[in-house]
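Field reference: sequence -> structure
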Amino acid sequence: MNSISQEFKIGALMIVGAVMLFFGVNYLKGFNPLEKSDSFFAVYSKVEGLAVSNPVLVNGYKVGQVARIEFHERGDGSLLVEFTVDQSELDIPLNTEAQIFSSDLFGSKAIQLIRGDSDTFAQNGDTLVASNQEDITEAVRKELAPLRAKTDQLIAGVDEILTNMKKVFEDDATLGLPSTFESINRTFHTLENTAIQLDSLIIENREVLNSVMTNLDGLAENLNKNNSELSNIIKNFSNVSDSLVASDIAGTLYKADLALSNITEITNNAKVGKGSLGKLMVSDSLYNGLVASSIELQELLDDVQLNPWKYVKVSVFGGKNKKQLSKAELKKMRKLIREELEAEENKLEE
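Structure field:
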């Protein structure tokens, strides 16, 4: 047997070393050619710094890695990302979302698979839904945006204050500063004197103030002692108010208004001479007739009292002598005449 040449041994050793180096490097990158893996795709408008060999996670556990990133063939600038999933026992629903996110505080990117609820599972070579989680830098920028706006306003305000102070301390404007400080000094001096006078007034009237406070304490104590009585008074007022509200005030006022209207109508009729009362008020003849009748009745009563035999004939033992009426008979006759006169007056009023 011919011996193997030295060149063949060196060539074979170099090939084996290259193969081992290739598999070793890929293994260190997370690619194990001995394991079966499925490839999936996702199309992103931007990859936010995602690179080949970045991990693919499910619930924080690494299940694969990014295998390839290139521009999509449709030429609109979108990026096609191919990634592998090494866990053959992991079923991925077809509506699973492949989201690019920051895996640490340093901004390292990774893909997390947010499992969907579809009953259909993705197969090797399928394209999943792509999304981008908000970057930490972008989130911080959004959080700091209001603070930045307020800071800009603060800087503008400080700049305005400095500008105004510069104007105040200019040569032409500082001429009035001494008088201004002097006025401020006088104001503080006046306030100090007022405080001293107020202290003196309080000291001089301390007894009066103590008496006032004592009286206030007594008043508060009396109010506290009579709390139940005050509550009863307030309750009574409340009951009276409720009674007034419950009563038919509107109906009562309507009846009163109706009565006043009737009285007004009667008064107006009396003024124009309508009705018995109007005739009595307007017609002088009725009044004069009543006066004349009263005078005649009075004269009749007087004549009856003086000459009763003209109206009543009384025989004594069949003789012709006439007898004068007694006081009781005259009183009875006057009563009858007065009743008759009142009856006539009532008829006239009606």
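Note: Residues 283-349 form one domain.
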